Amino acid sequence: SDPVSPPRLGCGSMGGMLALPPGQGPHQVGCTDVMVGHTRQGLFLRLFYPCLPRAGAAEPLWVPRPEYCGGLADATLGRRWCSVLLGVAIGSCRVPVSWNGPLKPRSTGYPLIIFSHGLGAFRTLYSSICTELASWGFVVAALEHRDRSAATTYFCTAEAGREEWIPFQRVPQGQKEFYFRNKQVHQRARECVRALRLFQGIAGGRSVPNILPQDWDLSLLKDNLDLTKVAVMGHSFGGVTAVLALVKEPSFRCAVALDAWMFPLENLLYPEVPRPVLFINTEKFQTPESIAKMKRLSSRNSQTRIVTVLGTVHEDQTDFAFLPGKLLSLIFGRRGSLEPHKALAITSQAALAFLQRHLKLEEEFDQWDELLAGVGDSVAPDSPLGRSHL
């Protein structure tokens, strides 16, 4: 199927106000939620993975619970009262993946991507890019961070059925934003490392109880992961989190940073980033200071790449790009001129080409290598191939 022809909005199985695209790769995609531990030191993530086709598979809600609409209204809009409107507009939208679908076995194991969300987001708001990557043969673990940068999140205490919610927190008055955010980015990067440890434990045969009432057995992953091939990825606050995770954990072979918000990273750490990073920027978000920081990394590692996708804005790298224009403009005040399916295709193809190179994958993702040309390139979507370097 042509990845660029958009589905008509509000049609098909999605219903509601959002039509997220199914993955374009050769694998069907399954999805489950995983929560480990009864304290905020545990982990919470949504897992996207290649699965076996299953007739009549249920599709998960895009916004998993109404509490997230409240958190989103509060964090993104600063207007709690919008939560009801958001609930009506997006509360019934579903993700085109198979909920708890059976894992498709792979004797050589799947490479793993740990994904970190942006400020005021949560684990499901990047379902389109996570689904796309899983459809090409990755297991993707989309974290929900507990540093109070998520719109809201929760953990289940050891008391049966009791949940403790962790609301979004703005920078406290009188505190310097850098110190507040720097503390958060370090916690987020530690959570990325803990997520990797979780999968290393599973691969080593450790039994990991998922405390959510899911019937999906995590031990199925034991012989189906290749943990010599692990990358870390994220958007905005999650993009800089991915860069910092490379400093903290040598097992991460590379990072893909979508429109990284470089502000929270201390200057001391730039010389310490040992691995290549692919920065995929949108046209409108980055500042000259931020680009200068990215270039510092590229001067240290010749494999680091910086590309800009023309005609895109910051939200275009989230699922919000697939909301109807009027609703999107109402929430964010603007939208990119590049058709969202095209933007997603360029972003995922550049990421796949980069991941093939640095995880040493035996795939054909090098067909998109031209998207990774030199530092600071702009990717224009309108050449005969759908992209070119200016």
From TrEMBL:
The keyword Protease does not apply. Keywords: Hydrolase, Lipid degradation, Lipid metabolism. The active site is at S236 (nucleophile), D259 (charge relay system), H314 (charge relay system). GO terms for biological process: lipid catabolic process. GO terms for molecular function: 1-alkyl-2-acetylglycerophosphocholine esterase activity. It holds the Pfam family PAF-AH_p_II. Its EC number is 3.1.1.47. The keyword Metal-binding does not apply. InterPro entries: AB_hydrolase_fold, PAF_acetylhydro_eukaryote. This is 1-alkyl-2-acetylglycerophosphocholine esterase.
